[in-house]
Automatic annotation (TrEMBL):
<feature type="domain" description="Aspartate/ornithine carbamoyltransferase Asp/Orn-binding">
    <location>
        <begin position="149"/>
        <end position="298"/>
    </location>
</feature>
<comment type="similarity">
    <text>Belongs to the aspartate/ornithine carbamoyltransferase superfamily. ATCase family.</text>
</comment>
<comment type="function">
    <text>Catalyzes the condensation of carbamoyl phosphate and aspartate to form carbamoyl aspartate and inorganic phosphate, the committed step in the de novo pyrimidine nucleotide biosynthesis pathway.</text>
</comment>
<comment type="subunit">
    <text>Heterododecamer (2C3:3R2) of six catalytic PyrB chains organized as two trimers (C3), and six regulatory PyrI chains organized as three dimers (R2).</text>
</comment>
<feature type="binding site">
    <location>
        <position position="264"/>
    </location>
    <ligand>
        <name>carbamoyl phosphate</name>
    </ligand>
</feature>
<protein>
    <recommendedName>
        <fullName>Aspartate carbamoyltransferase</fullName>
        <ecNumber>2.1.3.2</ecNumber>
    </recommendedName>
</protein>
<dbReference type="InterPro" id="IPR036901">
    <property type="entry name" value="Asp/Orn_carbamoylTrfase_sf"/>
</dbReference>
<dbReference type="InterPro" id="IPR006131">
    <property type="entry name" value="Asp_carbamoyltransf_Asp/Orn-bd"/>
</dbReference>
<comment type="pathway">
    <text>Pyrimidine metabolism; UMP biosynthesis via de novo pathway; (S)-dihydroorotate from bicarbonate: step 2/3.</text>
</comment>
<dbReference type="InterPro" id="IPR006132">
    <property type="entry name" value="Asp/Orn_carbamoyltranf_P-bd"/>
</dbReference>
<feature type="domain" description="Aspartate/ornithine carbamoyltransferase carbamoyl-P binding">
    <location>
        <begin position="2"/>
        <end position="141"/>
    </location>
</feature>
<dbReference type="Pfam" id="PF00185">
    <property type="entry name" value="OTCace"/>
</dbReference>
<dbReference type="Pfam" id="PF02729">
    <property type="entry name" value="OTCace_N"/>
</dbReference>
<dbReference type="InterPro" id="IPR002082">
    <property type="entry name" value="Asp_carbamoyltransf"/>
</dbReference>
<feature type="binding site">
    <location>
        <position position="129"/>
    </location>
    <ligand>
        <name>carbamoyl phosphate</name>
    </ligand>
</feature>
<keyword id="KW-0808">Transferase</keyword>
<dbReference type="GO" id="GO:0004070">
    <property type="term" value="F:aspartate carbamoyltransferase activity"/>
</dbReference>
Length: 305
């Protein structure tokens, strides 16, 4: 039995296959409409979500399966003190596969040790968000036709942003990737990620504070929200929250063929005037999230269509 806990759990070749299935799902959705008939997905969300929970649910429903679960810790027996281990043992009796989001780093990994069904990490604290990474890779490949030889700007809260952490690990396995790490000093990428992946793999990167410094060089600009829920101090959040606002004036300095991605939700970091720019790809990205999660569910349940 296989789980998805880390963005490195699938090889580059396996990711390619997964993305090919996702593209086929996009083009031939009817072919997959009954693939998971009789199967159930449990969504165990101890932390707020719109896209990740609903896109997992939409994915399973599109495959002809059904869904059950909870959308906050308060509405589960976690509120009475139940452990993640006991919850997943119980859910293993009710469902065929589970997606778990948890505010504590490592909780889905713990769940996977006690589970008798595949567990998908749907985001654990400030650590990883591997299904967002699958979504991001599919979006990048679909928009540019490749994942190699790209310059990617990661902008915003690089300290707490788990989508960025997972994406760096995943992209570091592709040839010719370069990063611009765009953040205020206080929200820089943690040293352990720089040492563990960027330095170890000799990946070219530049840390800059001003977004304008990076813009002309980029193939993709990946914006992120300042992660309010991970701050220990409200004043620090207020000071940081509007540090970056991508607007039409800044977009005018970006290359014609540079796409803007964002895992969403956005707060103020992308002005709504950018939404009509043909380079704004974040809602398309949310759509790709359904196709790749459909492909992932099929893979983890060992179902071929
Ligand atoms: N991208 C993402 O994780 O969004 P949600 O928090 O809405 O699931």
């Amino acid at each position: 039995m296989r789980h998805l806990i880390s963005p490195l759990d699938f090889s580059v070749e396996e990711l390619d296959t997964l993305m090919n299935v996702a593209n086929d799902i996009e083009n031939n959705p009817d072919k997959y409409a009954h693939a998971c008939e009789g199967k159930k997905l449990a969504t165990l969300f101890y932390e707020a979500s719109t896209r990740t929970r609903l896109s997992h649910e939409a994915a399973m429903l599109n495959l002809g399966g059904s869904v059950l679960g909870f959308s906050s810790a308060d509405s589960s027996s976690a509120a009475k003190g139940e452990s993640v281990a006991d919850t997943i043992r119980t859910v293993s009796c009710y469902a065929d596969i589970a997606a778990m989001r948890h505010p504590k780093e490592g909780a889905p990994l713990v769940a996977s040790k006690y589970s008798s069904i595949p567990v998908i990490n749907a985001g654990d604290g400030g650590h990883q968000h591997p299904t967002q990474t699958l979504t991001d890779l599919l979006t990048i490949r679909s928009l540019k036709g490749r994942i190699n030889n790209l310059t990617i700007g990661l902008c915003g809260d690089l300290k707490f942003g788990r989508t960025v952490h997972s994406l760096i690990y995943a992209l570091s396995r592709y040839e010719g990737i370069e990063f611009y790490l765009i953040s205020p000093k206080e929200l820089r990428l943690p040293d352990y990620i720089k040492e563990d992946v960027l330095d170890k793999k000799n990946i070219k990167y530049k840390e800059v504070i001003r977004i304008e410094e990076a813009l002309p060089e980029l193939d993709f600009l990946y914006m992120t929200r300042v992660q309010k829920e991970r701050f220990f101090n409200e004043d620090d959040y207020i000071r940081m929250k509007d540090f970056y606002i991508l607007d039409a004036e800044k977009m005018a300095k970006a290359p014609e063929e540079m796409y803007v991605l964002h895992p969403l939700p956005r707060v103020n970091e992308i002005s709504i005037e950018v939404d009509n720019d043909p380079r704004a790809a974040y809602f398309k990205q949310a759509q790709y999230g359904v196709y790749i999660r459909m492909a992932l569910i099929l893979n983890l349940l060992n179902i071929t269509v």
